UniProtKB/TrEMBL annotation:
InterPro entries: Ergot_Alk_Oxidoreductase, NAD(P)-bd_dom_sf, NmrA-like. Residues 2-214 form the NmrA-like domain. PANTHER family: PRESTALK A DIFFERENTIATION PROTEIN A (PTHR43162:SF1), PTHR43162. This is Uncharacterized conserved protein YbjT, contains NAD(P)-binding and DUF2867 domains. It holds the Pfam family NmrA. It comes from the Bacteria.
Length: 273
């Protein structure tokens, strides 16, 4: 199988879990991953696309939205995978893609995949717990204060290891296809996430609800753009006011034979690693 984004948040776990199954894994990208066989893949160089997929039975596709031009090229990459003979393709999507406009790149990528003569799995995760440790909010972990405009509403955050587990299940012969929502085992508040990390790391960490303007200014002070801060503040605000509610899904339990990881289990794993 071929894995795009093999060094990323989900891709590295897909590679590791597929290797654990004894599969031959091509870790495709511009640099070698921690496991798997490296194969060159560059979103800006179409000559690398076919060789990365040729001979693979399955592929995991991640769209790097921070790579200029990649979202627009995603349909062509997916078509290239199918043209190379890949029979099963799992696309990393998002939990709320059905509510996105028709020209949304993720929605277009999903529709492209579904139009092809392949077994298609749409991996639709909710927000990553990993965003608190290696993502946009990592700086807040270092200061001991998670300052977000998210109010007190609960949310079913997911561990990226669970996203990978569902993807690997979908890439197996006779694996599940179609939309696969991936959430944590329960909805929890940001207070609960902070408490889990505090307990695992053995140092103070608390959640403090703040106004959107303060949050945006905080992100700007750490090098993020105003537009990115405004985008996150809008999403968090919808959680706070109850207009963005995600039900807990049992996808991990149904297809992986175990329940999804809790925030406490995620935090302990992060602390140990």
């Amino acid at each position: 199988m071929t894995v795009l984004g093999a060094t990323g948040k989900t891709g590295r776990h897909v590679v590791a879990q597929a290797v654990e199954r004894g599969w031959v894994v091509r870790a495709a990208g511009r640099r070698a991953a921690g496991a798997g066989e490296f194969v060159a893949f560059d979103w800006d160089d179409e000559s690398t696309w076919h060789p990365a997929f040729a001979g693979a039975d399955a592929a995991y596709v991640v769209i790097p939205f921070n790579h200029a031009g990649a979202p627009e090229k995603a349909p062509d990459v997916i078509r290239a995978a199918a043209a190379a003979g890949v029979a099963r393709i799992a696309l990393l999507s998002t939990i709320d893609v059905d509510h996105a406009p028709d020209d949304d790149p993720t929605k277009v990528a999903e529709q492209t995949l579904l139009s092809l003569p392949v077994e298609a799995a749409l991996i639709r995760p909710t927000w990553f717990l990993d965003n608190f440790t290696v993502g946009s909010f990592r700086g807040m972990l270092d200061t001991g204060e998670l300052r977000l405009p998210a109010g007190e509403a609960p949310f079913p955050f997911v561990d990226t290891r669970d996203i990978a587990a569902v993807a690997v299940a979908a890439l197996a012969p006779d694996g599940p296809t179609g939309p696969l929502p991936v959430t944590g085992p329960e909805s929890v508040t940001h207070h609960a996430v902070a408490e889990a990390l505090e307990a695992a790391l053995g140092r103070p960490f608390r959640y403090i609800p703040v106004p959107a303007a303060e949050f945006i200014a905080l992100l700007e002070s750490r090098g993020f753009t105003h537009s990115y801060g405004d985008f996150l503040a809008d999403a968090l605000g919808k959680v706070a006011n109850g207009s963005f509610v995600i039900p807990v899904a049992d996808t991990v339990e149904r297809h992986c034979g175990r329940r999804a990881y809790t925030p406490a289990e995620f935090a302990r794993h992060f602390a140990q690693s």
